[in-house]
């Protein structure tokens, strides 16, 4: 995962150190609390417009506490971080970080493999019997899946999906979400959200539910956009697509969502994940519970009520009294 820092960020070095520590906490220590703390700190610093000159100065920013500000002091005073130096020299940390680059290999699986002395990509190729279908695909396209997708390529993929889907049935609605919808110039994958006007959370028709997504996947295979399926359920497809001979194979996610849950799903699937976290926390403070399906008031008993009727993303922000943010403003 990329560091939330760019070339013109005056605190670039600190951000990448914190992002690397975040990865270490996620993959090696498996401490999600610390992972989120480091990511939050890195993202706060990435949008700070001036060079931080001391840990004390950093501590004044929200999301940066005592421990992280001490690390910032160490970087500023010595030009490096001993903790990171140690991680860079630790063989099992190196191996775990390497293996988790494969799509489908998470921190726990990576640890298991390393404990079996499977530590390199070469080792993985020799032990595909220990890998799931997802992990085998991840290994096959390791290089391709790490390449960022230019916005223009996603625009072309979007056109094909829109075209094929509308040929199938004009009552489908398609929205490409994720970092693409947030306006990023490049993305890690293609996050596609689909609904159909006759499919709601009350739909009982099992056949309709079972085929709405499968028909789309079949169509996109037929036109050679989809090249691999990692998994396919009634509401979720994970796989890969390839636009043409000159483009790499790309990760493609498709989700089918009931029409009445479309806006909560769009909001969720647009992210970023940190933005979702903040917004959900705000919703709870305002007395609501928000997830990818619905927004529900939480009564004094703590039991969530019926889902509120939502007809736009703005509705969700309005209900919880949160200032509306355009997708482009949700990348923090
Ligand atoms: N999401 C989330 N929490 C997670 C994972 C995902 O809220 N743990 C939501 C927000 C993300 C969206 O799903 O924006 C899509 O997930 P991706 O992993 O594809 O992330 P992005 O599209 O934001 O970034 P990338 O360009 O790396 O794909
Ligand atoms: Mg994405
Ligand atoms: Mn995705």
TrEMBL record:
Major location category of this protein: cytoplasm
Active-site residues, as the UniProt record annotates them: 71
GO process terms (BP): base-excision repair; double-strand break repair via nonhomologous end joining
Stretches that traverse the bilayer: none
Molecular function GO terms recorded: class I DNA-(apurinic or apyrimidinic site) endonuclease activity; DNA binding; DNA-directed DNA polymerase activity; metal ion binding
Keywords recorded for this protein, A-Z: Cytoplasm, DNA damage, DNA repair, DNA replication, DNA synthesis, DNA-binding, DNA-directed DNA polymerase, Lyase, Magnesium, Metal-binding, Methylation, Nucleotidyltransferase, Nucleus, Sodium, Transferase, Ubl conjugation
Catalytic class of the enzyme: transferase
Annotated EC: 2.7.7.7
Pfam (any one): DNA_pol_lambd_f
Catalyzed chemical reaction(s): 2'-deoxyribonucleotide-(2'-deoxyribose 5'-phosphate)-2'-deoxyribonucleotide-DNA = a 3'-end 2'-deoxyribonucleotide-(2,3-dehydro-2,3-deoxyribose 5'-phosphate)-DNA + a 5'-end 5'-phospho-2'-deoxyribonucleoside-DNA + H(+); DNA(n) + a 2'-deoxyribonucleoside 5'-triphosphate = DNA(n+1) + diphosphate; a 5'-end 2'-deoxyribose-2'-deoxyribonucleotide-DNA = (2E,4S)-4-hydroxypenten-2-al-5-phosphate + a 5'-end 5'-phospho-2'-deoxyribonucleoside-DNA + H(+)
Cofactors required: Mg(2+)
Domain of life: Eukaryota
One GO cellular component term: cytoplasm
Subcellular location: Cytoplasm; Nucleus
CDD domains in alphabetical order: NT_POLXc
Domain Helix-hairpin-helix DNA-binding motif class: start-end pairs: 56-75, 97-116
Residues covered by the DNA-directed DNA polymerase X domain: 9-331
Tagged with keyword rRNA-binding: no
Keyword Lyase set for record: yes
Role this protein plays: DNA polymerase that functions in several pathways of DNA repair. Involved in base excision repair (BER) responsible for repair of lesions that give rise to abasic (AP) sites in DNA. Also contributes to DNA double-strand break repair by non-homologous end joining and homologous recombination. Has both template-dependent and template-independent (terminal transferase) DNA polymerase activities. Has also a 5'-deoxyribose-5-phosphate lyase (dRP lyase) activity.
Entry's family note: Belongs to the DNA polymerase type-X family.
Name of protein: DNA polymerase
Species assigned in the record: Ignelater luminosus
The organism's taxonomic lineage, starting at the top: Eukaryota, Metazoa, Ecdysozoa, Arthropoda, Hexapoda
């Amino acid at each position: 995962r990329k560091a939330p820092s760019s070339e013109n960020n005056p605190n670039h070095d600190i951000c990448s150190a914190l992002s690397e520590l975040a990865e270490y906490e996620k993959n090696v220590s498996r401490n999600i609390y610390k992972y989120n703390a480091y990511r939050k700190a890195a993202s706060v610093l990435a949008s700070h417009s001036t060079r931080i000159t001391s840990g004390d100065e950093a501590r004044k920013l929200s999301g940066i506490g005592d421990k992280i500000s001490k690390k910032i002091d160490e970087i500023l005073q010595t030009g490096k971080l001993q903790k990171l130096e140690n991680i860079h020299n630790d063989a099992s940390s190196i191996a775990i970080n390497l293996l988790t680059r494969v799509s489908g290999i998470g921190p726990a699986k990576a640890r298991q493999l390393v404990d079996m002395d499977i530590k390199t990509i070469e080792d993985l190729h020799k032990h595909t019997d220990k890998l799931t279908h997802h992990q085998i695909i991840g290994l096959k396209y390791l290089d391709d899946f790490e390449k960022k997708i230019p916005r223009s390529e996603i625009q072309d993929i979007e056109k094909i999906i829109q075209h094929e889907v509308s040929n199938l049935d004009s009552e489908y609605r398609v929205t490409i979400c994720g970092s693409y919808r947030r306006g990023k110039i490049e993305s890690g994958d293609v996050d596609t959200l689909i609904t159909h006007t006759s499919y709601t959370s009350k739909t009982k028709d099992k056949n309709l539910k079972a085929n709405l997504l499968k028909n789309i996947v079949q169509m996109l295979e037929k036109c050679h956009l989809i090249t691999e399926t990692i998994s396919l359920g009634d509401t979720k497809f994970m796989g890969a697509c390839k636009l043409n001979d000159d483009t790499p194979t790309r990760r493609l996610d498709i989700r089918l969502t009931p029409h009445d849950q479309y806006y909560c799903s769009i909001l969720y699937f647009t992210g970023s994940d940190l933005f979702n976290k903040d917004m959900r926390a705000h919703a709870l403070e305002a007395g609501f519970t928000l997830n990818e399906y619905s927004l529900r008031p939480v009564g004094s008993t703590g039991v969530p009520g019926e889902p509120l009727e939502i007809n736009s993303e703005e509705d969700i922000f309005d209900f919880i009294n949160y200032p509306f943010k355009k997708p482009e403003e949700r990348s923090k």
